[in-house]
Structures are given as structure tokens and as C-alpha cells.
Design goal:
Layout: E1 5-10, E2 14-20, E3 26-33, H1 40-43, H2 48-67, E4 72-77, H3 79-83, H4 87-98, E5 103-104, H5 107-119, E6 128-133, E7 138-143, E8 147-153, H6 157-164, H7 172-192, E9 201-205, H8 207-217, E10 231-233, H9 234-245, H10 249-252, H11 266-279, E11 284-287, H12 292-304
Parallel strand pairs: 1-4, 4-5, 6-9, 9-11
Antiparallel strand pairs: 1-2, 2-3, 6-7, 7-8, 10-11
Helix pairs in contact: 2-4, 5-12, 6-11, 7-11, 8-9, 8-11, 9-11
């Protein structure tokens, strides 16, 4: 009997599901904004509202998992759950829905899984930097066929927005401060891992980068699969950043390619991306729709082969 695999990623901004069959064909891929990490930097805890949003989403996913008769599954939680002081209570509620607690993975493991996912659908094997900007952390990973190193930075689209971008639109000094914070962190990585500045290819994954690409091409309907392997220049990223950062939210939401549920945090995500590209002198990156979920599925499939 053919096996069906499922992976769930409980992130700081979104809760995501991937279901594939034994051949690797995607049966279901869903990205849902749940904002589990909302206001976490201020309170130190996952809010009751954010928990409920995420649990409601997970309940829907559980129905799909049963519908597709999934035989092997894996659920992981990332940055928000790594720092919240009530993660255990949240996990207990998740267990009531799925029968098992999520795995709380480190930033380094998150990076390793994202690297596998991001590079799995790319044909050529070459030294690659993968940039994965999440809601509350950013992972930088370098490798060729296998991972050389992964580093997690404590900045993402949600927590950088909440900590640094207080005006609508953000003031220039707020943007400068946000970019400087990330740039300093990337500077430390470049000092400790010089290899990061000598890769042949840069690949970008996850919501912020895919959204910047969608805005750059002016997608009428947001479709990450249509953006896979798109080349995104630093000039294009800077242009999207300037446009979005200088608009109030009420105008920003009308940009083609920008999902409304990401409009309030996209400038924070852009600050991370701009800082990484400037500091590492990245002239161009390749967008990948494959990410942590695909890395999880890859590991599940390997265990059955």
C-alpha cells in the first residue's frame, strides 16, 4: 500500500501544511497566516488569541490529514515557540488535536531542513547560500550537496516590525535602525563563517522573499509556484523596499502581488532581506517555493526507502 506523508511547520507568522504521496507528488500545500508570535517580544508569551488562531488552523489541517489517509507525519515548531514562556501549554493543546506534541527544533536544525528543501528542486549542484526569512528568525545556510553550516539570526518580519517600525509609514530612522540591527548580526556571521561570502548561488525561500518577488512582477493573484526559480536582483529588491516602505498601510495593501495578511509586516521582512543582500554584496538570488516543509518530507520519505 502506498504511503502518504504530511509535514506541518508551526512558525511565528504562518502555520503551513504539505501532504505528498509516495512518488513525491504534492497533494496539498497550504500557507496560512496565524501570527503565533504576535507581541511575543513585548509579553514573552504566546497570546490566547494567537494560540486559538493556530489551533483552529491545525484542526483544519488534521481533517485534511485524515482525509488523505496520511501514514507518516511530522510537526515542528520554530522561533516563536523557542522563546515563549508558555510553549508547553500550547503544545499540550496541540497534542489534544493531533495526538502528539510538535517537535521544538533549534534554529540550526530549522536551517538544515530548509536547506534540503530549498535545494531539492534545483538541477545544478553548486555551492549555495540559502536565505530563509521567517516571522521571528532568519536562517542562513551554506552547502553544496550537503550542508556546511547553518546560522539562525533572531530577526524576522514580525518581531523586527514590532520592535523597530512604529510609525505608518515607518520613519527613515526606524528603517535605518532595523537594517543596522540585522546587518550587524550578518557581519558577525561573515566574520565567523567566511565561506558565506564565496558561494556560487544564493537561493531565497519563505514568505518575505516570495512576496517581494510577487510584488516585483506585479502578480495579479498571489501564486508562489509561478515564482519558483525567478531571478531577483538586488536592484529589484531595493526598488520594492523603497515603494512599500514609503507607503502607509492603507495604500500598501493595493500593491499587486502583496497578500493583505502580510502587508503590515512586509516592510520589516524587506529590512531583513535588504540588510543581508547589502552586507553580503549579493547581486541576485533565485527564488524557491520549496522550504522547511519539503525538507521534513524528504526526511520522512528517506526513512521508508
Amino acid at each position: 500500500m502506498d504511503e502518504i506523508f504530511a509535514a506541518i511547520d508551526i512558525g511565528s507568522n504562518s502555520t503551513n501544511l504539505l501532504i505528498v504521496d509516495q512518488s513525491g507528488k504534492t497533494l496539498k500545500r497550504i500557507v496560512r497566516s496565524t501570527r503565533l508570535g504576535a507581541n511575543l517580544a513585548t509579553t514573552g508569551a504566546l497570546s490566547a488569541e494567537a494560540i486559538q488562531r493556530t489551533l483552529d488552523c491545525l484542526s483544519e489541517y488534521e481533517s485534511l490529514i485524515k482525509q488523505h489517509k496520511v501514514s507518516r507525519r511530522r510537526t515542528v515548531a520554530t522561533a516563536a515557540c523557542r522563546v515563549a514562556n508558555n510553549t508547553n501549554q500550547f503544545f499540550a493543546e496541540v497534542k489534544k488535536i493531533s495526538g502528539a506534541e510538535p517537535e521544538l527544533i533549534s534554529g540550526e536544525i530549522e536551517g538544515a531542513l530548509s536547506f534540503v528543501g530549498a535545494t531539492s528542486a534545483l538541477d545544478e549542484k553548486m555551492s549555495t547560500l540559502v536565505v530563509d526569512i521567517g516571522g521571528a528568525s532568519t536562517e542562513l545556510m551554506v552547502g553544496t550537496e550537503t550542508l556546511d553550516f547553518a546560522v539562525s539570526l533572531p530577526f524576522g518580519a514580525v518581531n523586527l516590525t514590532e520592535a523597530e517600525l512604529h510609525r505608518d509609514p515607518p520613519r527613515p530612522e526606524e528603517l535605518t535602525n532595523a537594517i543596522s540591527l540585522v546587518s550587524d548580526a550578518v557581519d558577525d556571521v561573515a566574520h565567523n563563517y567566511p565561506l558565506i561570502g564565496h558561494v556560487e548561488r544564493v537561493v531565497g525561500v519563505a514568505g518575505t522573499i516570495v512576496t517581494v518577488a510577487a510584488v516585483e512582477v506585479g502578480q495579479k493573484t498571489f501564486d508562489p509556484s509561478a515564482l519558483h526559480k525567478l531571478k531577483l536582483s538586488r536592484e529589484a529588491v531595493e526598488d520594492v523596499f523603497r515603494t512599500l516602505a514609503t507607503e502607509p498601510l492603507s495604500d500598501r495593501v493595493f500593491n499587486p502581488g502583496l497578500p493583505r495578511d502580510r502587508a503590515d509586516i512586509i516592510v520589516g521582512g524587506c529590512c531583513v532581506l535588504v540588510a543581508v543582500m547589502r552586507r553580503l554584496q549579493i547581486s541576485e538570488l533565485t527564488v524557491s517555493q520549496y522550504n522547511l516543509l519539503d525538507g521534513l518530507i524528504s526526511e520522512l520519505r528517506k526513512k521508508t526507502s
